[in-house]
Request: fold
Amino acid sequence: MIYASFALIYDRLMQDIPYQGWVRYLDTLFGKLGINPRHILDLGCGTGNVTIPLAEKGYQMTGLDLSSEMLSLAEQKARAKGLPIQWLLQDMRKMELGAARFDLVISMTDSLNYLSGENELSEVFRSVRQYLNPGGWFVFDLNSLYKISNVFGDNVFTLLEDDIAYIWENSYDPEKHTCTMDLTFFVREKDGRYRRFSEQHRETGYTDVEVKKILNKAGFQVAAVYAENSFDTPGETTERIYFAARSTTDDKGNSL
Reply:
């Protein structure tokens, strides 16, 4: 199962991530670029940490993820708040959404870095364009190539707390621009014993030029590229980059 064990501790490990700040940033970005969405699709929504706050702001939200465990937790959190969010268990590389169309598609928290190279990135971009309304928008973030190669790199990270610990070992491939992350977790159960399990993640880094080129070929016009939580041009050591692009073709590939 995808993230079967990891899903149960995901929110605990991500508790310091400023999701609410990211959502406020997105709201400001929408205003700056004149994006006025009603129906938003969130790709790689995980446990709903961006989807749910956007729904609370009044947007009609649909969340899509490959992990049933992640979606189950997202659904529980949304239900507790009385939010009518649609959750879809699908692979973003093979989306089948029927006649559904969206004003905006988002993908946050470096979900797109998990795709295996330019071919898969191009495949997802084309699929996103297919399910956008004419002139619809695509807003997403990526961990920068700098972060993948230098911050992640070949480094080792550890966490040691009373009820959870992990060892995170990275291996960077400079030819493919990929970082393979092997994580071993130790989680204390209710009976006091620790359960060990492992996960392997892999992220690919891209230059801004590469991403823009792929977007253009997929039928998008790039409107903005920003450094994380700002409206500045990304620098050499920027770790997270936001892209905003508008569809220039309809769902049949015809120019608008």
In short: The chain has a mean pLDDT of 92. The two ends are 41 Å apart (CA to CA). The chain is about 30% helix and 35% strand. Residues 42 and 163 are 32 Å apart (CA to CA).
